[in-house]
Structures are given as C-alpha cells and as structure tokens.
Amino acid sequence: MAGLVEGKVALVTGGGSGIGRSTASLFAREGARVLVADILEEGAQESVDSIRASGGEAELFVVDVSDEHQVVALLDRCVEQFGRIDCALNNAGISGPQGLLHQIDFAEWSRTLAINLGGVFLCMKHEIPLMQKQGAGAIVNMASGAGMIATPGMSPYCAAKHGVLGITRTAAVENAQTGVRINAVCPGSIDTPMLRSAMQVDPMVEKMIRANMPIGRLGEPHEIAEAVVWLCSERASLVSGHSMLVDGAALAR
Ligand SMILES: NC(=O)c1ccc[n+]([C@@H]2O[C@H](COP(=O)([O-])OP(=O)(O)OC[C@H]3O[C@@H](n4cnc5c(N)ncnc54)[C@H](O)[C@@H]3O)[C@@H](O)[C@H]2O)c1
C-alpha cells in the first residue's frame, strides 16, 4: 500500500531530536524523501542514519532558523537535492528562559522570539514561494498548548507560540487559493529532551507538568508526528488555517 506522503519531499527543522526526529522518520516511513535540518549536526546525523538504516532516503542540513541567509541556503539545498518541497514541518524551537515576566532579561526574550517565532516566519517566507510555484504544498508549524493559554513562568515561549498561531492563520488565508495549506499543531507535554530538561530544573515543575495531563502520562513524540504527517497528506485536503491540539485533553478542562 502506498504511504501517506509517497513520493513527496519533506523538510523538518529541529529534525535532530524529539518531535522533529520522530516526524522525520514517520515522513520517511510514509514514503517521503526527507531533509533533516537542525542547528546541531550530531543529532541531525543520527536522525538521518536511522532513516537510512530503515531503508528511507534522507539528507541533513545544518541551519540556525533565526538567520535568514541560512534559511535561504536551506531551501536552496532542498531544491538542489530533491527538486522540490511538498511538505514542511517548521518545528525548531527552544524553551527559553524561565521566571516571572518582570524578571526576564530582554536579550533572552529576544532570542526566544527570534528562534521560536522568527524562525517559523523565515521558513514560511522562503517555503511559500516555492510551493506557490508548484501550485501545491503543505506546511505545519509547531506551536503548543502554550500558544492558546497563559504559561506562567514562560512568557517569552508563550508569546512566541501565540505568535506562531497568528502567522499560521494569516498565511493560510493569504494562500487559500494558491494550493498551499498551512496549519499548526499544538502538543501537550511530550516526552522529549526539551521537556526533560525543563522538568529537571525543579521537582515542582515536573509535578505540575504531569498533573496537567489528564490522561495520566506524558505524550510521545510519535503521537505528534502522526498528526503532522496526516496534515501534510492529501487526506487533509480541506484542512488549512487549523490549530490542532494533540494533548490528551489537557486544554479541554
Ligand atoms: N516537548 C514538549 O512537551 C513540547 C510541547 C509543545 C510544543 N513543543 C514544541 O515542539 C518543538 C520541538 O520540541 P522538542 O520537545 O522535540 O524539543 P527538542 O529540544 O528535543 O528538539 C528541538 C530541536 O530544535 C533544534 N533547534 C533549536 N534551536 C534551533 C535553531 N535556532 N535552528 C535550528 N534548529 C534548532 C535543537 O537542536 C533540537 O534538535 C519545539 O518548537 C517545541 O516548542 C514541544
């Protein structure tokens, strides 16, 4: 049986770890050729090696998504290597500084916004014209439950993720007649290196994070990957401008 994204080309930023790695690997299992992009070469190489070991096709590119020149080079590489770009997961991100808003250093605020929001903006800015030229494409931006509600102690992260939803909806409407669909996924607490290091800061934080998942466990990266790959597939042909919560009912309460 053909995979969900058979014959497509998929780009995954932040593909060297956690949710990005799991999604890159599901894209490959569902038939796509994958460009794994990350600021850390080692993680990206491990993702690529594991896809290749399972018989998939993947390449890596080292990029800082907050730098426009590097993002342009990333998209150039995608087209040189694979000839096109059908699916993009704009996922690279950091948790940013923790503390009450009035204690946050402005430089740390700016860095968090530059990566988590600026990076999504820059990737979309350079993905959309390529997809428009093809007359087809699907973009998923990685937001968070923190893009929908207050996240005390993480105001820069919360602001960036709210911003991701805003630019996702705007770009989706702008592209409604171009064949390019643009959606966001909003994970709950997912067991990745990012979440584990946030939980390590303070046992109270870990307790709070676990208590916020009504299903009684953390989510797994592959559970987010399933949503992303479906959104990028033709099965989701009418879905655009959507913010999909994948959080085990965490925000339903
Ligand atoms: N884990 C969760 O609970 C959770 C919940 C909601 C949303 N998210 C979002 O999911 C995305 C992935 O998070 P994760 O939990 O898999 O984290 P992770 O730390 O495991 O992976 C993030 C990846 O992004 C890369 N990266 C960081 N800065 C970058 C930059 N400037 N340029 C390119 N790559 C960069 C890192 O090297 C890393 O490989 C993030 O956007 C995060 O905000 C995660």
Compact overview of the structure:
The chain is an alpha/beta fold.
Give an overview in words.
This protein has a single domain (9-246), classed as NAD(P)-binding Rossmann-like Domain (Rossmann fold, 3-Layer(aba) Sandwich). It is 47% helix and 15% strand. It contains 8 helices and 7 strands; from the N terminus they run E-H-E-H-E-H-E-H-E-H-E-H-H-H-E. Helix 5 links the parallel strand 5 and strand 6. The longest helix is centred in the middle third of the chain and has 29 residues, at 106-134. The model has no long low-confidence stretch (mean pLDDT 97). Nicotinamide-adenine-dinucleotide is lined by residues 13-14, 16-20, 38-40, 43, 63-66, 91-94, 115, 119, 142, 144, 187, 189-190, 192-195.
